[in-house]
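Archive maintenance. Older records in this collection stored only the sequence; we are now back-filling the structure field for every entry so that each record is complete. The fields below show one back-filled record exactly as it appears after the update. Entries are processed alphabetically, and Transcriptional regulatory protein is next in the queue.

ARCHIVE ENTRY
Title: Transcriptional regulatory protein
Organism field: marine sediment metagenome
Length field: 221
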Amino acid sequence: MSGHSKWKTIKHKKSKEDAKRGRLFSKLTKVIIVAAKEGGGDPNQNIALANTIQKAKEFNMPKDNIKRAIKKGIGKVGGYDLEKVVYEGYGPEGIAVIVEAMTDNIKRTASEMRNIFTKHNGNLGSTGCVGWMFNKKGVINLKDGSNIDEDEILLLAIDAGADDVIIEKDHYEIYTEPTKLMKIKDFLIEKGLSTDSTEIILIPKNYKLLDESKTLKALKL
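Back-filled structure field:
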């Protein structure tokens, strides 16, 4: 390959990578803005913001970009007019579905969401139609390979006020009430545990068993 040809190849590849990174940063910026808008600009008190900042750092998003997005979210500088919206409905085989999204046009997004549900043999319902089928929980994933033994981790989780601990091989998931999540996380870190991720999730109260073909249809939604 000639020097000129190699230069063009590298330049083209870099251009594609820069564009991809730009789109990623744009998405992260919007998530940071909404998280800060809803829960405030302090990541120590706002788990959604803390998680997004962590993701942004993992993708090497500049600190100035993160700070600017937080300021936009709390109204210190002009920002995007984004809102967080939640849609509920039923997917194939009657499975309950909850979708969280961000939008700058609620009517447009609602129409698009309705079309997606219909296309995949589902139905978009009204607010609250399936929400009661889920429990909202905080979950702390510990980093694998902890030097602290299983019994001690269980005792620490109890002392911290956790609801449950699920163990799979050397992986630990600690479940909490959402309002206690940050406090319990801080307690565990103070006791020498390292956390891999922290988030608030929705856990179904009941599960529906589907065969492989029906599962694939549901996943397409």
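Update note: The helical segments are 3-39, 47-58, 63-73, 106-119, 150-160, 181-190, 212-220. The chain has three domains: 3-73, 83-129, 134-204.
Entry marked complete.
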